[in-house]
Structure formats: structure tokens, C-alpha cells
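Here is one such protein, fold included:

. . .
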Amino acid sequence: MRNSYFLGVLFFGLFSAQKIQVVDAENGHPISNARIILEDKVVYTNEDGFAPIESSSKNFEISASGFKKEKISNFNTAIKLKPSVQDIEEVKIVSVDVKKIFEDVLKNYQQRYYDQPSLYDVVIKEKTFDNNNLYFMGIGEAKIWSKANKYNYRDGYHKRYDDIMQIQLNNVKYLKRVQSDSIFTGKSTEVLHQTLGSYFMNFELNSIVESLKDKSTKKAGILKSKEGDEEVVSFKINSDNGIRREGEFNYNLKDKVITYLKISYLQSEYPTEKRTTTDGREYGYKLGDATLIFDFYKIEGVYVPTMTQYEADNFTIFYKDQVHVKKFNREVVYNTFEKTNQKGLDPKVDFNIGIWKNIPLKEDKAAAMLLSKEEQEFIDQK
């Protein structure tokens, strides 16, 4: 059975006084998903490059994939990051053995990433599009408890999902659904092995390493840039079974950890498949592309997650004379990290009914989120 990512993952204003915008120093374009490490939490910029930062903030760090890391002494509403990729004509192309790195990181995962019970304050955001129109958005503050900060295959196989990870929904800030153009509404809400796995980098690394065991798999890695102990490497992995992967990762040479991984599954070349809805209607289904991002940082001497993202794009449904192009995005930002002796959360989300159907708790705290222009327009529309 081929290992592909399918659309249908289960988890489907400004509250701070100040904000900053992070932009490309060369062209002024906003930088999304720039990580900002503050004294007491971690936040990320939204699609327009904005992030909520108090004016009293100082001595914080900003980093983004493809850009040089910056230390900011004092609050500034506009932050410019310089690209880290040098002119290809000025540097020698250096090949990297990505197979060796992936295998070594996976083999030593428990030793190099924090593997004890952890508690996080997080922001969860999910958006779903149909024919390029946003029709569902949920944004909420939550707590995540993780037993070992990795996916346990034995627990996953036996559907002991609560032994891997638990979520407690605290504050739902935005939740809106409008009528989709799609005629398809019936689907299973059962938690899937691959759904929960997409929250953990070791799940993805295991998939990569398994594909690299096949001698027919073609691979390539190129060093894009280097800053201090950290290298940025781009890679491509193509298997005989038709799975094409490409992406990049940041690799810390000293600690031998992948601190950032972005990987895309390029699946648009697969032929259209025949499927049947839960209410018996036949339709055509064509895979699109799926991208996963995992980001980590070092705190208290250990590496812990700060962000995971899953995006599925151009998944297409054909039904009679209708065509529906689907897009889904889920982002989890881990604002705070705490070592814990807790054995779980109470109450906790029931995965089988979907996160947004659970009853949230009410917890008063300063929000760590900003809506993008697109998101604000969706909330405002009648």
C-alpha cells in the first residue's frame, strides 16, 4: 500500500496591544511562519508577516527558513531579515548524504529530542477551502499533553491514541463555517494512524527512512547555506512506486538534530481513482500535493517542538459535471513548554468527534495570535 498523504485529516482581532511585521530585507515581502522566541513564549508570524509582540519586549530572537537569524535588542514594528542563500555562482555546490542524516536522527531520536511527558500551551488553527473559497476556519487556544514527544507505533496500531497525545480545548477564538460548493458532506471522523502521526516528526522520518531502504530509490541533497553550527540542506527523494518527495531541513552539526523540516509529497501525477461516498455516490478522486513542516528549538538544554503544519492542496473531486478542488491547512504553534509528571489531561478532547465539536474550557490569558487579511475578511463577511 503506497504511503501517500490524503486530504481529510481529522482535526479540522488582535488581542495584544502591539504587533510587529517581519519582511524580506531585499524585496520587502512579508515573511510568514517566522519564529519569534520571547522570554516567556514562542510566537510565529501570520500569512502577512505580522505577530503580536508587546512593546516592552526586548532581547528576542527571530528566525525563518531561508533567512539569517536576528537578535533584536529593542521593540521595533518592522523587522528585516536577510536571505541566507548565497548566489549559486559564488559558492561551490556541495552534496550532502541525506540518507545518512535521516537514518542517524531517527535511530537516536529519543536521545536527542526531549522524550518525557510534556505540557504545552498551543494555538491550533484549521482552514478548509473549496474551489479556492475559504468555507471553514477554527482557531483556538489549547493545551497539549504528550507522553514522549514522538509517535508510538504500538499505541497507534492498537488505537490507544490518548497514550500518545491529548488535547484540552480552552478558548475558541474564531469558529466559522459557510456553505461549501461541494455536495459531499458525509465522511468518517475516526482517528487515523496517519492523522495523529502527522503531529510528530519521527513518524515522517520513519516513512522517509523506509523508502530509502529500497536501492531503487533515488536521492539527492545539496547544501544551501551554513550559519554557525547549522546547515540548511535541500533534498529530493524519488521512489519506484511513484512517490516523489522534496524539501529542505536545518541540521545542527553539534547536536546532530534536525531543527526544521519541510517536506512536500508531489502526487498530482497519480491517475484519478474511483471512489464512493458514505451515502453511496460514485465519484472520481485525484490526489494533490501535501506539505508537512516541523520546527524545534532548544530550551532548558533539550529540543522540543515549536510548530507543526500540515497542508493539502489541489486534491480534486469529480462528480458528474462538477469539479471541486480542495485545500486544507492545519497549524499548531507551541507557545510554551513545561516538563510535567502529569499522566494526561482532564477534561480532554474526544478525537472521534473532531476537535471543534468538543466543549471548551474558559481560560483567561493573553492571546498569541493575529488574523491574516484573508482570515479577517472571512470572519467579517455576512
In short: Residues 349 and 357 are 9 Å apart (CA to CA).
